Amino acid sequence: MTTRPEFESQASGLLFPEIREILRTAPGELPELTEELHPADLADLVTRLEEDEIRIFFSNLPVDRAADVAEYVDSSLQAELVTSLDPDRAARIVSAMSPDDRADILAEMDPGPAAAILARIALPQRRETQLLMGYEPHTAGGIMTTQFVTLPLATRADHALELVKVAAADKETIYTIFVIDREEKLTGVVSLRELLVADPTQRLADIMNESVVWVTPETDQEEVARLISKYDILALPVVDEGSSMLGVITVDDRIVVGTGPLHPAGALHGGKLREPVGDPGHPGARDR
C-alpha cells in the first residue's frame, strides 16, 4: 500500500505503532483500542499498513465498523483492499456498505474476485449492486444510491415521522423525504425540518414543495454537480422517463468536477415537477 508522510489526525498517528503491535500479537484487542477513532482516521491508518496487516485489521473489526472504515479509504485503494480479504469476509463487509460504494468497489475489481464476492451477497443486494454497476461511472446512475425515503401523498405528518424514524437505520439520507403518487411517480419533496414543525394531522400533499430539481441516470456528473451547487440540494433525485424514482445523489457522494470534489450543502425548496423541456435526457430544474 502507498504511504503518506503525515497522519491526518494526531490520535491515529500516536496509536499507529501500538496498532501494528496489536495486529501482530493480540488482534482481538483491535476493536477496543480503536473504538474512539473516527472511521476516516482509521482509513488513513489502513493505507500505511502492509497487505497482511490489512487482512488482520479488517478480519478483527466488527463488520459494520469495517464497512464504515472501508468507505473512507481512498477510492484508488478500495478495490485493492477488498481483494486482499477472504471472499466470505469481503462479502460481509461490502454488504454492510452503502449500495453505491459497494458497486463502485466491485466495478473497480478484477472480474474474478468481484464475481466471487457478488455470489456471496444476498440476492436482493446482489441485484441492486449489479443494477448500479450497469451505469457509466461518471453519470448520475453511476454515483447514485438506492437508499432513500419515499412516502405517499396522503401520509400524515405524524405518521411520516414515525416511518422516517424506522427507516433511518437503513437509509443513506433521511433529511429529504420524496413524496410519490399512487403510480409511484415523484410529486414533491418534504424536508425533515418541515415535517418536525408541521401540524401532525397535515398530509404530505399539503406540506411538500412541488418544485423538484431532478436528473436522469444518464446525466453527466458535471451537470449533477452544477445543479447541486446552484440549488443547494442535500439530495438530488434520479428519475426514469416516467418520473419514477431510481435513486438519489447525496452531497457526500463522490462528485468530481475539474480538479476536485464538490461538497455542496443546503436544502431544496420551491416550484413543481414537470416534464423536461427539449432533450428528454436533460435534467429538470423548475421554478423555485
Can you tell me about this structure?
- The protein is mainly alpha-helical and about 290 residues long.
- The chain folds into two domains: about 10-135, MgtE N-terminal domain-like (MgtE N-terminal fold, Alpha Horseshoe), CATH 1.25.60; about 150-260, CBS-domain (Roll), CATH 3.10.580.10.
- The protein has helices spanning about 10-25, 30-35, 40-45, 50-60, 65-70, 75-85, 85-95, 100-110, 110-120, 125-135, 140-145, 155-165, 190-195, 205, 220-230; strands at about 150, 175-180, 185-190, 235-240, 245-250, 255, 260.
- The chain has a three-stranded mixed sheet with strand order 1-2-3.
- Strand 2 (about 175-180) and strand 3 (about 185-190) form a beta hairpin.
- It starts with 9 loop residues before the first helix and ends in a 27-residue tail after the last strand.
